[in-house]
Write a structure and sequence with these properties.
Rossmann fold, about 50% helix, single chain, 7 strands, alpha/beta, about 240 residues
């Protein structure tokens, strides 16, 4: 059965995804910032059929603890078949515009911390010449917009990093999936206005699960975001800069 490391395991999207792996009988190692939330997710996954679940409390911005997390996961799982990364914050664009410190924090949380851990994981997967990596990025990385360009910058960097990693690791038989959700109804987006484009996390998680199983390369979820972002990317800059986006 699958041995899976999940980072950001208490996020709504991650939880909805790994419910399906639990039902398959996977063994899971969960990492997140809140011990209480991790315990709730662990108990739920065990009830759904997971062969075993262990937890590890970590703030991924603490880069010096990444190796300890990776070692603990390997110690518990024995071997690592797949990595699923779903941590991040939406951040406050106004705060990031006003404060260099806030801007740096958002870039570290949403890109640097992911790239740092992926470097450790990639070397391991490449050496064992098998495995799968799935990472949540965002449609926000497809084009910089005034309303969230700091977050979008981190997502664009993450997407580019994953593209290069996919190209590198394919030679070693390792699969890399870039996941690009649009807005999803989770606690992270609770402040946003109601919109028909705000997706339910349940179907989003199930779609990600299927994409991981089927070794997709890039996943827009829900799928209509592929068309939406194609249109947005192709708006001429002289027009785009006048839009309220």
């Amino acid at each position: 059965m699958l041995k899976l490391l999940v980072i950001g395991a208490t996020s709504a999207i991650a939880h909805e995804t790994i419910k399906h792996f639990a039902a398959d009988g996977a063994t899971l190692f969960l990492a997140g910032r809140s011990e209480d939330k991790l315990n709730i997710v662990r108990d739920d996954l065990l009830a759904r059929g997971a062969a075993g679940v262990e937890t590890f409390v970590i703030d991924m911005n603490d880069l010096d603890r990444h190796q300890a997390l990776f070692d603990a996961a390997l110690d518990y799982l024995g071997t690592l078949d797949a990595l699923y990364m779903a941590h991040g914050t939406l951040g406050d664009q106004d705060e990031s515009e006003a404060s260099v410190e806030a801007m740096q924090r958002e870039l570290t949380t949403n890109f640097i911390s992911a790239a740092a851990f992926l470097t450790l994981a990639a070397n391991h997967f490449e050496a064992q010449r098998r495995g799968s990596i799935a990472v949540i990025s965002s449609v926000a990385g497809d084009r910089g917009r005034a309303s969230n360009y700091v977050y979008g910058t981190a997502m664009a960097a993450k997407t580019a990093f994953l593209g290069g990693l996919r190209n590198r690791l394919a030679k070693a038989g390792v699969h890399v999936l870039t996941i690009k959700p649009g807005p999803v109804a989770t606690p992270m987006t609770a402040h946003m206005k109601a919109s028909p484009l705000l997706a339910d996390p349940g179907p989003v998680g199930e779609t990600i699960y299927k994409a991981m199983k089927n070794e997709r390369d890039i996943l827009y979820v829900p799928g209509y975001w592929m068309l939406i972002m194609m249109i947005i990317r192709n708006i001429p800059e002289r027009i785009f800069k006048r839009l309220n986006m």
